[in-house]
Amino acid sequence: MQFVDTNIFIRLLAKDDPVKSEKCFRLFKKAEDGDLELHTTESIISEIVYVLQSKRLYNLDRDSIGKKLSVVLKIRSLKIPHKSVIISALNLYSKNNIDFEDAILISHTLYSNSKEIYSYDRSFTKIEGVKRLEP
């Protein structure tokens, strides 16, 4: 089992180092072709979003991040626990003014059919199908 770290995704998506970017492209191409199975985690995906949106680093907008990253996440041989939840969270993040971590929580909530989140964060009320509760 082989895991992929944040910086490999960043080199692939940002294309800021041509040599490393090409190597990363070939790695993900092997996965896309079914020749290799790659694994990563929810926290790595969250870090990718954080780095790409960072004003000091790449300063990409939500829509660009969503489009670029969703293409990679849809590679069948890229394994992520709760992958459909993560893809849904990326969609929520790119279309709403919410943090990616909040989008992950919302997606987990919606997938669990709970629909309720305890939080003082009022941004949860923006999302249809979610009810924000306070203790």
TrEMBL record:
Pfam families: PIN (PF01850). This is PIN domain-containing protein. It comes from the Bacteria. InterPro entries: PIN-like_dom_sf, PIN_dom, PINc/VapC_TA. Gene3D superfamilies: 5'-nuclease. It comes from Candidatus Woesebacteria bacterium GW2011_GWA2_33_28. Residues 3-128 form the PIN domain. SUPFAM superfamilies: PIN domain-like.
